[in-house]
Structures are given as structure tokens and as C-alpha cells.
Design a protein that fits this description.
Strand content: 5-15%
Order of helices and strands: HHEHHEEHHH
Strand order of the largest sheet: 1-3-2
CATH topology of one domain: Arc Repressor Mutant, subunit A
Shape: globular
Structural class: mainly alpha
Distance between the termini: 32 Å
Radius of gyration: 18 Å
Length: 146
């Protein structure tokens, strides 16, 4: 292949290992989340609620980098199993207020073992893990700013 096309080689793309790693990471979560009867997207939504207890649908969508079309069925499912309550905001009826329920709080203790298990699977040192996290967020924020 000509030198001018080196940038098109898969081995020279940062997007590909990020894509493949992301897919594999979500796959590794699978068995842990199956025990909780959660999808990965439901799990990350619950993580926000475990941290904040109550958020608007807008805040949740922004935090998870999801659009409402993706988030709505996730919230409906989590509401139907009793992990959260969705209520129209009193200040702005277009927004939903999402509140963690007691059943949702109880799920937190069952999920607590997942992050360390995934970290072990990844096989990174604490320093490498922190660097990866920092670089991924830096790239994400830079791209979203464009």
C-alpha cells in the first residue's frame, strides 16, 4: 500500500481499538448484569441514580450521553420493575423527574461487586486505569465541543 494511505490502515486507527474494546467491555459486563436482570444501559442509568437519588430526565440524558429516544424505554423498564419512579416535573411538564425507589437502593448492594470484577478483567494497573479514564473523557469532551 502506498505511504500516502498509511492513515487508512486499521492498525493506525485509534477508533478501532476503542470500538472493539467498548464492545468487549460491554460483553464482559453481560454475566454480571444478567444476574441483576439489567442491560448495560439500564445499569449505567441506575449508577447515576445510586449517586444522585433524584434527577431530571434531561440531566440523566446528558450524564449518560444518550438521547431521549434511547433513554425512554430504559426508564420505562426500570420503572416497571420498581427501581425508579418517573413523574412529570412540577416546574416544567416537558421534563420527567426520576427518583430512585427503595427497591432500586437495594439493588445497589448487589451491584457493588461489579466494578472491581471488571477492573480485574481489564488487567490494568490503577495508574493505567486512571490514565485511560482521563484520556477517554478528554477525547469525548473535545469531540462533543466540535
Amino acid at each position: 500500500m502506498d505511504k500516502e494511505y498509511d492513515a487508512l490502515k486499521l492498525c493506525n486507527q485509534v477508533c478501532f481499538p476503542l470500538y472493539a474494546c467498548s464492545k468487549e467491555l460491554v460483553r464482559q459486563y453481560g454475566p454480571y448484569l444478567k444476574e441483576l436482570d439489567l442491560t448495560y444501559t439500564q445499569y449505567i442509568a441506575m449508577m447515576v441514580l445510586w449517586e444522585n437519588e433524584k434527577v431530571s430526565s434531561r440531566e440523566l440524558a446528558e450524564c449518560l450521553h444518550l438521547d431521549y429516544g434511547t433513554l425512554t424505554p430504559v426508564l420505562k423498564r426500570l420503572d416497571s420493575v420498581g427501581y425508579l419512579k418517573r413523574e412529570r416535573s412540577l416546574r416544567d411538564e416537558r421534563l420527567l423527574t426520576i427518583t430512585l425507589t427503595e427497591k432500586g437502593r437495594e439493588l445497589k448492594s448487589r451491584a457493588a461487586s461489579i466494578p472491581p470484577a471488571i477492573a480485574q478483567i481489564m488487567g490494568l494497573s490503577g495508574e493505567e486505569f486512571a490514565a485511560l479514564y482521563t484520556l477517554c473523557y478528554k477525547a469525548l469532551l473535545n469531540m462533543e465541543a466540535k
